[in-house]
Amino acid sequence: MSSVLLAEDEFLIRAVLVDSLADVGIECIEAATGQEAIDVVRGDQPLIAIIVDIGLPDMSGEKVIEAAAQHRPDVPIIRCSGASAPSSLPPGIAMHSFPKPYSPSELSNFVASLVRKG
């Protein structure tokens, strides 16, 4: 079964999103740090989408997005950020932006719609 990688350091946000994604039939692989997320991205676990919080404790989520774009170019990437600063990612990385705060059900439904399109 393919899963969504959820890179989010805040436990409560992560837990609510895992439940919300499960409600729409999507399983999650959780990563609380950027390095955990990069390890999953570089691994061989099938992924159907990657959700990345920009404010991870050990590195910017944008480093995770760069690794995801390199290792999983066909997997949709969703960048979540409460910061109003523009992305510092190089041009050409395809991703969707989802501003914080967001409703877990809105994000889950958005992910489900991306997965169905793919």
From TrEMBL:
SMART domains referenced in this protein's UniProt entry, alphabetically: REC
Modified residues (4-aspartylphosphate): D53
Native organism: Reyranella aquatilis
Domain of life: Bacteria
Segments forming a coiled coil: none
UniProt-recorded name of the protein: Response regulator
Residue span(s) of domain Response regulatory: 3-115
Pfam families associated with the record: Response_reg
SUPFAM superfamilies named in the record: CheY-like
Keyword annotations: Phosphoprotein, Transcription, Transcription regulation
Key word Zinc present: no
CDD domains, sorted: REC (cd00156)
